[in-house]
Structure formats: structure tokens, C-alpha cells
Design goal:
Elements lengths: L1 H24 L4 E2 L4 E2 L2 E7 L10 H13 L4 E6 L1 H10 L3 H8 L7 E6 L3 E4 L13 E11 L8 E10 L2 H17 L1 H7 L3 E2 L10 E2 L1 H19 L4 E2 L5 E3 H7 L1 H5 L5 E3 L6 E4 L4 H8 L11 E10 L15 E11 L4 H18 L5 E7 L10 H17 L4 E5 L8 E7 L5 E10 L1 H5 L4 E2 L5 E2 L2 E10 H12 L12 E5 L5 H13 L1 E2 L6 E2 L2 E4 L5 H10 L4 E5 L1 H6 L1 E6 L3 E5 L3 H8 L1
Parallel strand pairs: 11-15, 17-18, 24-27, 24-28
Antiparallel strand pairs: 1-3, 2-3, 3-8, 4-5, 5-6, 7-8, 9-10, 12-14, 13-14, 15-16, 16-23, 17-19, 19-20, 20-23, 21-22, 25-26, 28-29, 29-30
Helix pairs in contact: 1-2, 3-4, 6-14, 11-12
Length: about 575
């Protein structure tokens, strides 16, 4: 922990070094904030009319290295609010003035002096002098609204990364280059999976036939796992009266994220649904229930809508239309343990299938903040139950306060991708609040009315976000079973059409059963007049798992020449179906 804190102090000091370097190069700038962040630091700066780009980073970094070499002391001093305001006004730092004015009148405010070169409003802590900041590099320039408010000034954010040693920095930069090559936005375009349109709107992805094939295969696999465990499909509309979310508590918590719809016929106000749990609760409440039919399990793959800020949108990672493979269990309290165990098993199976079997579980608890609904005793009981569930299911878990949903604690599954990054994807959440707010009930074995427990679960989570992770995890080389196009037949010339027909006759009869049953093979034929080299390159660029290259000699011998990502081989046509089934 001490080493982590020191690394954070190094990164924090580097944000000040960055600001000092910028001020020497551009004396008229004004400063926003400059914190330490995961892997590095940034500073938000108003350059006025000066335009800064990535091309300017080397000269800023050079200036920073000069400051580092001077080993300037980082010295803290505490002043009154009036003294702080006078400093900010004297230095024409309008953003600092705003920050200081928001502080209480009796606040003790700290500054850090970097020798006699640079002073900044800051809580600290920092390293002792600028010579102790480790290895660093400036990496990019971005825009950032002041205080995250789209109605405020757009500042220039300069990002840097920093580590203890040059070796650690080099390893990080190498991983970043690999991440760029795997960027799902880049691959999404190259593989023709999805696109965006200014006419449709930011954060509203459009999926091509290839991308739609991929997302539906994933959604159907997720649904099939839960269908096997007794979940039943339901369907709910995409708009609802706002009363539904006022009753559930979502309106008070997330009202500013709702897309509102106004009826031109009768003046009613509706909302595009941002989540599905209140709808599923209404299906449960639609008729009397008894203990004999518990648990009741619903599932639905459906699109929800959230009014995310434009600046926070990014490819498929964060969108305004998100499709969730959502499910809800309504059960008795004594059934919680078995239901959670069932859901954990589903999560493990799905992520093993997609090649992300290294999972950690974050047990997300409530904090002391006043943002949670429900009785504290129920929360304590629920938190104990999910911890016991993690232990009973042998999960690699850690506990974190403040990450719970407003209605209950949850197990968030963190999956590691091919280059070691961790992503929060699947979730299991206990909820004692919504059953109370919607007055859900069933008749227990004593003939008395009892509240059910609601368990929320998504295996993929947002399918869009899952795909952003999965595309980058695979680098676009999808497993055979879920590749949008599994096989492409490439002809050497136009004299093999009869043999191609024999091959397609075999492919048409292939039915892949794992992990999805009755999954017909997806293939295309490239018999264009282009050269064989061009046709192979075209197929390779699309990262198609299996190429069948067909020439006159293959037809003569009754074989197929197969080219996979990592090998080439020839097999008899009669063995092709079995070969492909083993790949699935």
C-alpha cells in the first residue's frame, strides 16, 4: 500500500510539473484541475486562442524533464480562504477562483510551491522533490468540459502516464500499442460489424448484417444458458409512464438520464425505458402467486435507453441505446443461496466459452452516503448473503463499499481480457427494495402473504459493451462458433464450379451443436475473377476462421485445402463435416 501511495504521489507531482512546463511555454494559460489517475496523471488547461495537439507534446515533455532534473522541493503551505482568493485573482486564475469560492468560509486551504517556479492550489500529497517522479511520458491531448458540464467551457486535457521504472513504463506503452491494434472501433469498421451516423445520433450504433449475426449469437447463447435453468422469456415495451419509475425509485435517482416522450394525443408523459426490472415486477404482480411456484424466473434481451452525456460516449463501450440480456428471479428468502449458485454457474460457463475464464468477483456494498433505499438491517443481511455465496461458490472475490446499486448489494464479475485488462461485465444483485415499493407478494405455506426477494442478473451485461470487450479480447479473430462468417470458399479459377457445389452440399448439412444447438453453418463463396492472392487477402482481412481453397487438383483428388489462422492442411471431402463440428 505504501508503494501504491508513493506512486500516486509521484503522478500527482507530475501533474504540477506538467502545469509548470505549460506555463513556461504559454504564459497566458489558466488552469483547471490536475489529479493523479490510474497509470498516470492529467491537467485540464485553458489555452485561450492557442490550439494544442499531440504534435506539441514532445516540447512540453522536454520542458518537464528540465524541471524534473532541477529537483525542486514540493512545499506545502496552508492559507485562509481570503488569502487563497487573493492569490487566484492576482494570477487571473478564474477556475481556481471558482473552486475556492465553493469552499466553506472557515476552510483551511493548502497550496504547494514547486521551488520558486510554480504554485498551485492543491490538497496534496506529493513526493519531496521533482527528482523523485519516476519514469513518465505524455501520451495525448483531449477535450474536457470544465467540471464535466457540457454547458461550460471546453478545456484542453493533457494526459501522461508514469511508473516507478523505465521498464514498467516501456511495458505499459507496449500494451497500449497492442490495445490500439485491438481497438473495437477500428476493428468494427475493418470487419464491417457496426457503424454510426450523424443523422441517427451520437451513441446510437447501427449493426451491419455481420455485426448483427455476432450480437444475436451472443444474446441467444446467454438466453439458452438461462433457459436451461428454468428462465422464461418475457417481452416489455420500450416506453412507459414515468409513474413506474417514480414508484421503483429510479426516477428520483436517475431522472436526468431519462429520454422523455410526450404524447401528442392526450398529453401524457412517457419515458424510454432505461432498465427492465420495474417491468418484470409488474408481470410478477399481474396475478396471485403462491410459494409452490416460487422461484419465478424471467429473462429478456431488450434495448434500453439512457441520456448519456455526449463527451462520455465512446464506440460501443458507452452508448445511449444498450441491449441487456436481463433476467430477474422472484424467490423466497430460503431460495436465495441456490438461485445465486445457479447464476454464478451460468456466468462461469459463458465466460469460459468465450475464452475469458479468469474472473474476479467484486462484492459491491453500500457506503454511508445517503443514496440508498431500504432498511439498513435488510442491507446487512443481503451483504452477508452475497459474501457467503461468493465463498460457497469458490469465487476469487474482493469487497468494495460504495459500488452497490441503490436498491441492494451485488456481485460484479470482473473478466480479464487477452492483454491483461479487467472489465466489469456480468452482475448478480439482491433487491429487497423494489418488492416492497411495488408491494409484491406471494402466499406462503402458512397461508400468509409474504414479500419475495428480487435477484437481478445480466450475464453479458450491456451486449454493446460486452462486444467492445470481446472484439478487443479476440482482436477480431472470433471463435469458430460465433464468427459472423465461419467459412469462405475461395476458387482458384472458374473450372471448379461442379466441385464447389459438392462442397456446399456438405456445408449445407452441417449443424453445429456446441455451444448453441442447431446452429447452421455460415459460409460464403468467392468465385470472383480476382487473383487467388487478392481473394485470400480479402478473406484474411475479415479474419474468417476457415478458408477452403478449391483448385482443379483438389477436385481431381476429392480433397479440400483448408487454411486456418495458425495452420494449413488437406483432408478428404468426406471428413469435412466432422472436422468443422470439432472446431465449434
Amino acid at each position: 500500500m505504501k508503494q501504491e501511495n508513493n506512486l500516486e504521489n509521484m503522478r500527482h507531482t507530475l501533474s504540477h510539473v506538467l502545469a509548470a512546463a505549460v506555463q513556461e511555454l504559454y504564459p497566458t494559460v489558466t488552469f483547471g484541475i490536475g489529479p493523479a489517475i490510474d497509470n498516470g496523471f492529467y491537467y485540464d488547461i485553458d489555452f485561450g486562442d492557442v490550439k494544442i495537439s499531440d504534435a506539441d507534446l514532445p516540447k512540453i515533455e522536454k520542458k518537464m524533464r528540465g524541471i524534473v532534473s532541477r529537483k525542486l522541493l514540493m512545499e506545502k503551505r496552508v492559507v485562509s480562504k481570503m488569502e487563497a482568493l487573493n492569490w487566484a485573482r492576482d494570477h487571473a486564475q478564474k477556475y481556481k477562483i471558482e473552486l475556492i469560492e465553493d469552499l466553506p468560509e472557515d476552510a483551511e486551504i493548502s497550496f504547494y510551491d514547486m521551488g520558486d517556479l510554480f504554485t498551485d492550489l492543491c490538497k496534496g500529497p506529493h513526493v519531496e522533490n521533482t527528482g523523485e517522479v519516476g519514469a513518465f511520458k505524455l501520451i495525448r491531448v483531449a477535450g474536457a468540459y470544465w467540471r464535466g458540464d457540457e454547458k461550460r467551457e471546453m478545456l484542453t486535457r493533457i494526459y501522461g502516464v508514469a511508473f516507478d521504472t523505465e521498464a514498467e513504463l516501456d511495458e505499459y506503452l507496449k500494451r497500449q500499442e497492442e490495445a490500439k491494434a485491438r481497438d473495437h472501433r477500428k476493428l468494427g469498421k475493418e470487419l464491417d460489424l457496426f457503424c454510426f451516423s450523424d443523422l441517427v445520433g451520437a451513441g446510437l450504433p447501427l449493426f451491419t448484417p455481420r455485426g448483427t449475426e455476432l450480437r444475436e449469437l451472443m444474446a441467444n447463447y446467454s438466453l439458452s444458458l438461462r433457459g436451461r435453468e428454468g428462465f422464461k422469456k418475457v417481452w416489455t415495451p420500450h416506453i412507459t409512464k414515468t409513474d413506474l419509475y417514480k414508484t421503483s425509485g429510479h426516477y428520483a435517482k436517475f431522472g436526468d438520464e431519462l429520454f422523455m416522450v410526450h404524447s401528442q394525443v392526450n398529453g401524457e408523459d412517457f419515458a424510454m425505458k432505461p432498465m427492465n426490472c420495474p417491468h418484470h415486477a409488474q408481470i410478477f404482480a399481474s396475478r396471485p402467486r403462491t410459494y409452490k411456484e416460487m422461484p419465478v424466473r424471467y429473462m429478456e434481451a431488450t434495448t434500453d435507453y439512457r441520456d448519456e452525456k455526449t463527451g462520455e460516449l465512446g464506440g460501443l463501450s458507452r452508448v445511449r441505446s444498450l441491449t441487456q440480456d436481463d433476467s430477474h428471479v422472484f424467490c423466497r428468502k430460503d431460495q436465495i443461496k441456490d438461485e445465486v449458485k445457479r447464476l454464478v454457474a451460468i456466468v462461469k460457463e459463458l465466460y469460459a466459452t468465450v475464452g475469458m475464464q479468469k474472473l474476479r468477483a467484486r462484492l459491491s456494498y453500500r457506503s454511508d452516503e445517503d443514496k440508498y433505499l431500504g432498511d439498513k438491517k435488510l442491507w446487512d443481511m443481503a451483504q452477508k448473503q452475497i459474501k457467503q455465496a461468493a465463498i460457497d461458490n469458490g469465487l476469487d472475490y474482493f469487497e468494495q463499499e460504495g459500488e452497490a446499486a441503490f436498491y441492494g448489494p451485488k456481485i460484479d464479475f470482473m473478466a480479464e481480457d487477452a492483454i491483461g485488462r479487467e472489465h466489469q461485465l456480468a452482475t448478480i444483485q439482491l433487491d429487497f427494495v423494489q418488492p416492497e415499493r411495488f408491494e409484491l407478494e406471494f402466499v406462503n405455506e402458512k397461508g400468509e402473504k409474504e414479500r419475495p426477494v428480487m435477484i437481478h442478473h445480466a450475464t453479458l451485461g450491456s451486449i454493446e459493451r460486452f462486444l467492445s470487450v470481446f472484439i478487443e479480447h479476440t482482436g477480431g479473430w472470433f471463435p469458430f462458433w460465433c464468427a459472423p462468417e465461419q467459412v469462405r470458399i475461395v476458387t482458384v479459377n472458374d473450372k471448379v464450379s461442379d466441385y464447389v457445389a459438392k462442397i456446399t452440399d456438405v456445408l449445407d448439412k452441417v449443424v453445429l451443436e456446441k455451444p448453441l444447438k442447431y446452429n447452421e453453418l455460415r459460409y460464403t463463396i468467392d468465385d470472383s475473377a480476382d487473383s487467388l492472392g487478392k481473394k485470400i487477402k480479402r478473406a484474411t482481412d475479415f479474419k474468417i476462421p476457415v478458408l477452403i481453397i478449391v483448385g482443379p487438383k483438389d477436385a481431381e483428388e476429392g480433397i479440400v485445402s483448408l487454411r486456418l489462422r495458425d495452420k494449413e492442411e488437406k483432408i478428404k471431402l468426406a471428413k469435412l463435416a466432422d472436422y468443422l463440428c470439432k472446431l465449434s
